[in-house]
Amino acid sequence: MVIPSCSNSRCPCCSNFCLDDHLQSHHISSSTSTSCFDFALDDYLQSHHISSSTGTSCFDLVLDFLTELEKCDPFADLFLEYPKKQVRLLKTIFLYVKNCRRKGNHKALLEHDQEDTGNIMSESLRRNIICFSIQDVVVKMFHDLYSAYLLYKKIVSPNFGIIIGALTRSEGNIKMFLETDIKKSCAIIFFDCYSPEDPQLLMDLIESLSDSLEELLCEWRLWDTISCQLKLLRNLIGLATMQGFEHTQLANLSTYTAVMAGRLISVCRFGRHEIQVLDQINLLDLQVRETCIHVLTASKKQPRSSYALALKENEDLGVVQFIGSLHDYLYDLLESYASFQAQVKDQMLKLHRGIKYLSILLKQKEKLRDEIQDLIGVMVCDAGILIFSLSINEIKEGLPKETDLGLFHLHKVLKYLVAEVAHNYQLTSPYSSFNYPRSNELGCMEFFLENLKELARCDDANDSIVFLQDRIQRIEKDLEFLRHVLVNIKEQRYQNGKLQAFWSQVMEATYKAELLIDTTLVGDKCEDSLDVVARDINLLKIEALEIQNGQIQRVNKTSIHIPSQLIAAIHHEDLVGLDDKVKSIIDRLRSGSKQLDFVPIVGMPGLGKTTLAKKVYIADSVMSHFHVRCWCCVSQMYSMHSLLVQLLCSISSENPDKYLKKNENDLAENLRQVLLRRRYLLVLDDLWDVEAWNLLEKSLPNNANGSRILFTSRLQNLSSQFRPDSKSYHLCPLTDEESWTLLQKKLFFKEGCPPTLSEVGFQIAKTCRGLPLTVVLVGGILATTTQDRWEEVAKCLNFIVLDNKGCKKTLELSYSHLPDYLKPCLLYFAAFQEDEVINVRRLLWLWIAEGLVQQAKGKSLEESAYDYLMALISRSLVVVTKQRTMGGAKACQLHDLVHEYCVEKAKEESFVCVIHILKDSFSLAGLSNHYRVRAHNTGELKIWELMLIFPNLRSLLLSGLVGNYYLTEKEELGTLLPKLLRVLDLGRYNYVPMEVASLVHLRYLVLHGTRSIPSAIENLSRLETLIVEHPFDQIELPNTIWNLKRLSYLCTTDRTRGFIFPAENLEVSPNLVHLDTLNLTIIEPFSQSLQKILAKLPTIRRLKCSCKRSQPARRLTFATRSSKEILEFDCMRRLESLHLIELKGYEFKFPLNLKKLTFIFNYQPWSEISTIGKLPNLEVLKLRSESFVGEEWVMKEGEFPKLRFLELSWLSIRNWTATSDNFCHLEKLVVCNCLKLEEVPACLAECLTLEMIEVKWCRESVANSVRQIQQEQMDSGNEVLKIIIKNCHETNCSEAEEISSNCSEAEEICSEREFILSHYT
C-alpha cells in the first residue's frame, strides 16, 4: 500500500517534486483504484489518530493538499484561497472547542457528584461530538478533492474544472455545516464555556473568522466596522498576553470576545447572508468597552520595564498591532459618522494623528532608550482608554471634558517624544533659527501680510486664534512698517553690512511669526513663543526708526510690470548654421547599409544638438522614408520603463496612462511588435552612457531594411562604444557672424538691427563664443535692457564668458537681471525632473498656491501668473513645447543646462529640496530646513521621516517609482503629513489619507485614482485647487463641497471622468463664487437639479461636461428619444471654454460670450449646428468622433462670424458646403479621419486670414482640394498659407463605407472613453 518515498516532501534532493510525491510522503497511494484509495485513506487517517478528537493532522493535510493543487493551473489560487480560509476557520473552532472549559465552580460540581456528573459527562460528550463532526467534514473534503485529482490526472487533456467542481461541493458542505451544526452549538461553545487558558487559541479563532467573513461581506461598508472591532479585541488580548497577564486576569475580556465571535457565527449565513441582521451587532457595546478600559488601566500598572523588554523580545510587536488596530477603528469611526460637529471632528483628527505618531515611533524602537519605550507603552494604553471611552451619542454632541483633557495630555507627551527622537538624530527644532527661502523675500513677506489681513476678516476663526487676535494685529502692523523700511533700503543693503544684517533679522522674524501663527491655527499652543517673536519684531521696529531718521535715500518700490516687448508671440527658435548638417544627416539616414546603423550627434552643452535632431526628425523626407519614428529623452537619470513609455507614446501619440500600467516586459514586447518588419528611426536624446542602449537593444528588431538609431550626447567618445567605426557628427561653435545673425533674429525678428547698435551688438555676439544657448540667453537679457545700456552688458559679458564655465555664468547674469518676483518662479522649475514636459496650467496653479504671484491690477491671479511665465519665455529661460489652439503656451520645459542651474540655485537659496533616491532619510539630516520637498522615487519614502528632517514643510510633491503605477497604504508609505502644508501632490498613492482633512493651510491638492471625496474636505477652507489624476470612475463630491469658498480649480486628468455634485439641499447651500475651471459629470436622466447646480457656479470660465448613464447608449440620436431635452448653459455668463462629451440626443443653449467649444460623441444632426453658428464670439470649434452625424453640412450665410480655428475629426460627413463669409476670420483648419469627405469648400481660397490647413487620413480628393486652395492663395499673393497633408490616399465610396463600418464595429468593442483618450488626450 505504501509507496517508498522521501519522507520529506520538499527534500532538495527531489528535483521533480509533485503532488503524488506529497501524498506518498503522507502514506497515501495515488493509485487509480477507488477501493485502494479508500483503504489507503482510512489507514492513513487511523495511523494519524484522526478517530480521536485530539488530532489536527487532517486539517494540516487538507491545507497542504490545497497548496499543492495550486500547481495544477496558473489561475488555481483564485479558486483555492477561500477553501483554505474555511479549513483554517474549522481548525481554529476545533481547537477552541477542544480546550474550552464549562462555566461554573468546578469544585462545587465535584461535591455534588451524584447529581451533576451526568451533566458534566454530557457536556464533555457534546464537545467531543462537535470535534468529531468538524473532523468528519474536513476528511470528506479531502476524500472528494483527492478523487477529483485522480480523475484530473487520468484525463488525456487535464481539465481543472473537475477540481473546481469538487471545491464547489466542499464549500457548500462546509457552509451547510457552519449554518447548522456549528450554529446550533454556539451556545455550548461560546456562551456556556470559558475560553481556553491559552489566549492564542481565541486570537487565532478571531483572525480566521475575520478572514472568512471578509470574503463574503467585503462588498458592504458595514464589514469594515465589524472587521476593525474584531481586530481591536484580538490585538488587545495579544497586548495583554505579551505583557505577562495571567489568564484569570483576562477572563472577562476573553469571555466577551468569545461571545461576540459566537454571535457573529450564529447570525452570519455563510454564503446567504442577511446584512440587516449584522447591522444589529455591536461588538464594542458599553460593557465590552468598560472591560477593555479595565484591562488597559491594569496594563499601565504593570512594571514599566515590561514594555521595553516586550518590544525587544517580541518580534511580532503586539504593541504595534494594537496601536494599528486603534488607528483603523478610529478611522472607521470618522468615516462612518460624517455628521460630527466640526470641533469634534477636529479633536478626533488630532487623536487619529496622535495614534499615527505612536505607531511610527514604535517602529523605531531600536533608536529609543528604555525609559522612552516605557513611556510609549503607557501612551499606547492612554490612547486605547481614550478611544474605548468614546460614546457615539456623546461624540455627536461634543467630547466630554475628561476626554478633552486626556487628549490634551496625550498630545503634550507626544510632543516630548517627537522632540526626543529628533534630538537623537540631531535634527533642527521647528522653532529654532533656520534657513528660510532667500528669493523674493519682500514678495514672501507681502504674501504673509495678505494672509494676516484675510485671517482678520475670517468669520469662522477657531478659538485658538480669537484670543490671540490682538497680538496678531500688532505683529501685522509692525511688519507693515518694517516692510516699508525694507523697500527703502533694498538697494543700499548690498553696500552696507549693518543694513544687510537688519534685513536678515527682519526676514527671519517674519518667517518665525508666520510659522508660529500657522502652527496655532492647527491647534498647537505657541503663545509663549509668539510673544517672544512679537517682542523681537517690536525691537526691530525701534531699530528701523533709527534707520529712517538716518535719512537713507528712498528707493522706489519695485512694481510688478511686465514690459510689453516680453509679451511676444511664442515662436520656435530657428538656429542658424544647421542647414548643411541637416541635409548631411538626412542623406546618411536614408542611404547606406540595410543593417541597423547608428548616427551620433555630439558636442558640448548649448550647441543645439537637440534642435538639430528635431529638425531632422520632422523633415518631410525623413517622415516619408521611415514607416515608424520614435523619440525618447534619456538624460542622466532614467529607467527602462520610462524609456519604453516615451517611445510608444511618440509612435502612437496616445496618452501615457495606457502604458504606465504595464510592466517592462509587456512594454518591450509592444515596442518590438510595432517595429517588427518596419523601417524605423529611433532617436535617443541626451545620452550619457551605453547602458541605456543595452537596455533597449533587445526590444529593437534588426529588420535589415535600413532602420536607424540617431542619438545626441555631450560625450565625444560614446559613439565608439556602439560601433568602433561609427562616424559622429561633431557640432562646432557658431562663427561670430552666425552668432550675430542668431542674436538679431532673437531681438528683432525680421526687422534689421538699428545701425547705432550694430557695432556693440556684434561685440556682444562675439563674446558668446559660438554657443547658441548663450546667444539666446544674452538675447533675453538685452530684450529687457534699454539700448543705451548695451555697452554695460557688453562689459559684463566680456568678463563672464572669458570664464571657462561659459553658459552657467551667463545664466547667473540672466538670473541676476530678473525682477525679484520672477526669480522664485524660475527656481520652482527645480522641483521638476530634467527634460520633464510641464503642464502650464498646473504650473501656474502651483505658483499661485505657493504665494509666488502678486495680482496685477485688472487681472486675475492666473492671468498675472501667465504673464510671469511669458516673461521667462521671452528671456529664453523657458521653452514652449506645446502651443494652445490659438497660440499661447500649453506645455513647457527647461533646457537641461538651465535646469541644472535652477537645481543648484534652489539648493543654495534653501528654496526647494529635491530627493531622487531615499534609502535612508536620516542621511538628509544635514540639509537646510527647507520649506519645499520634491521626492521623485517615493516607493522608498517614509513621509514621517521627512517631517523630522523638515519640520516646517509647506510643500510636498511626490511621484511614484516609474513602473509602479499604483502605490497603496499597505506598501508602507508611513503617512503622517506635515501639518503646515500648503501644497500636496500625493503622486501615485491611490488613497486619501485621513490626515489630509487636518491640513487647514492646504491650497493645492492632487489625489490619485480616488472614486469619492470625503466629507471632511470642508476643513480645508483655504483650498483653491483640487486635482484627481487617473480617476477609477466618476468622482462623487460630498455635500460639504459647497463650504469651500475659495475653490477655484476642480479638475481631473481624464476628460470623461469628472466630478458629480450633490443635488440635495441646493437651496440652502452657498455658491462657489471663485470656481473658474471644472470637470463636471452629470447623471442621466437629467433633471432640474443640473440647472440648479450650474446656477451655483456663476464664475466658471472653463467647463468640461460629460455624462454618466445608467444604461450604455450608443449612437443615440434625436430620432430615438421620445422627447427632446434642453441643457441650458446660457446662465453661465463668464463661460469661455466648453467641452461636451457623450451628451447624446440633447439640444443646448449656450452663453453668447462662449469662445471655445468642443463636441465629442454627441451624435447631433447637422441641422443643430446653426445654434453654434450664431454664437457671436466663438473663435474655436472642434467637432470630434461623431459629434455630428449625417453626410451633409451646409453652412448658412452669416454663421461663425469670428471663427479662427475649426477641427473636424472622425466624422461621417461626405459633402461640406460653405460661403466665404463663413470663414472671414479663419486662421487654421484641421481635417482628420473624415473618410467619406470628398473635398473642403473651395471658397477657402478667398479667406485672406488663413494660415494653415492640416489634413490627415482623408481621401486623396480632399488633399487635392487643399492643394488647389493653396495654389489660388499663392496666385492672389498670399504666401503665408501652409498646408500639411499626411496619409491621404484614393478611396472609393464603398471602401470608405467599409472602413467607416469597421471603425463602428471597433467602437462597439472598445469603450468610448478609451477611444477618446487614444486620439484626443
From TrEMBL:
Record localization: Cytoplasm
Keywords for the protein's UniProt record, in alphabetical order: ATP-binding, Coiled coil, Cytoplasm, Hypersensitive response, Leucine-rich repeat, Nucleotide-binding, Plant defense, Repeat
SUPFAM superfamilies: L domain-like, P-loop containing nucleoside triphosphate hydrolases
InterPro entries reported for this sequence: Apaf_helical, Disease_R_plants, LRR_dom_sf, LRR_R13L4/SHOC2-like, NB-ARC, P-loop_NTPase, WH-like_DNA-bd_sf, WHD_DRP
Location, primary (coarse class): cytoplasm
One BP term from GO: defense response to virus
All copies of domain Disease resistance R13L4/SHOC-2-like LRR, residue ranges: 979-1116
Domain NB-ARC: 579-750
Domain Disease resistance protein winged helix per the UniProt entry, residue ranges: 832-900
Coiled coil: 458-492
One cellular component term from this protein's GO annotations in UniProt: cytoplasm
GO terms of molecular function: ADP binding; ATP binding
Pfam family, one: WHD_DRP
Membership in a protein family: Belongs to the disease resistance NB-LRR family.
Biological role: Confers resistance to late blight (Phytophthora infestans) races carrying the avirulence gene Avr1. Resistance proteins guard the plant against pathogens that contain an appropriate avirulence protein via an indirect interaction with this avirulence protein. That triggers a defense system including the hypersensitive response, which restricts the pathogen growth.
Name of the protein in its database record: Late blight resistance protein R1-A-like isoform X1
Originating organism: Coffea arabica
Lineage of the organism: Eukaryota, Viridiplantae, Streptophyta, Embryophyta, Tracheophyta
The gene coding this protein: LOC113698368
